[in-house]
């Protein structure tokens, strides 16, 4: 009996966790995992991060990537997920411009350099059933690279925050990855506000320590953590 229970728990853990190893640009995915996206420490375990103040909250990386993706400003992007993104919670995307003199293949993304380009909110149906964009899909929610973002080299950070256990402190799980990209085209916007990882999130933020059953009656009241979205 105990053995069976352990098996069930193990199976649940495996199906419940995920990584984002391939970037998809205008419908075209990377040809292999971890080519333009930096391999994450959970590539095998699929385990999420539970401490939003840890150093891993930035890119969770175990290695830089070998290649750089070309992304036209205005492109629609998402990530392939290694497993179904079955947990409820928002998907957020951030960009950080690589400083002059640094290389997108090695820069670590430190400092107040990250701006948010999108987030998602839940929907609730007549039965009070809550769903989030791309929940239960084998991909993350789509986003658009703002047309006004200046051309250049950037780190692109994708994040899915699993909130199924977020009613206790340290219960939210962060699944994320960073890709090395060159944005082409682009505009003359001044992206901001800028935030640092770690630093942008606290365990007590209302979008991280949150009882989703209370959000179900007012889905717009969900407050995603981090800076405001820069819309371009
Ligand atoms: Cu899980």
Automatic annotation (TrEMBL):
Catalytic activities: [(1->4)-beta-D-glucosyl]n+m + reduced acceptor + O2 = 4-dehydro-beta-D-glucosyl-[(1->4)-beta-D-glucosyl]n-1 + [(1->4)-beta-D-glucosyl]m + acceptor + H2O
Keywords annotated in UniProt: Carbohydrate metabolism, Cellulose degradation, Copper, Disulfide bond, Metal-binding, Monooxygenase, Oxidoreductase, Polysaccharide degradation, Secreted, Signal
InterPro entries: AA9, AA9_LPMO
Primary location class: secreted
Superkingdom of origin organism: Eukaryota
DNA-binding among keywords: no
GO BP annotation list: cellulose catabolic process
UniProt-listed Gene3D superfamilies: 2.70.50.70
Protein name in the entry: lytic cellulose monooxygenase (C4-dehydrogenating)
Lineage: Eukaryota, Fungi, Dikarya, Ascomycota, Pezizomycotina
């Amino acid at each position: 009996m105990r053995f069976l229970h352990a098996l069930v728990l193990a199976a649940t853990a495996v199906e419940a966790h995920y990584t984002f190893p391939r970037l998809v640009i205008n419908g075209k995915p990377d040809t292999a995992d971890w080519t333009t996206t930096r391999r994450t420490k959970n590539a095998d375990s699929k385990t999420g991060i539970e401490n939003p103040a840890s150093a891993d909250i930035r890119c969770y990386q175990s290695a830089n990537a070998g290649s750089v993706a070309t992304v036209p400003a205005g492109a629609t992007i998402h990530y392939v997920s290694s497993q179904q993104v079955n947990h409820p919670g928002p998907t957020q995307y951030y960009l950080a411009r690589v400083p002059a003199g640094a290389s997108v293949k090695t820069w670590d993304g430190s400092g107040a350099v990250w701006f948010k380009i999108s987030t998602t909110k839940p929907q609730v149906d007549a039965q009070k059933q809550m769903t989030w964009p791309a929940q239960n899909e084998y991909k993350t929610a789509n986003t658009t690279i703002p047309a006004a973002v200046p051309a250049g080299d950037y780190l692109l950070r994708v994040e899915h925050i699993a909130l199924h256990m977020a009613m206790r402190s340290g219960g939210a799980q962060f699944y994320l990855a960073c890709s090395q990209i060159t944005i082409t085209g682009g505009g003359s916007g001044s992206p901001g506000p800028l935030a640092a990882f770690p630093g942008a999130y606290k365990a007590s933020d209302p979008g991280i320590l949150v009882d989703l059953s209370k959000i179900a009656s007012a889905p717009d009241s969900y407050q995603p953590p981090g800076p405001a979205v820069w819309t371009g």
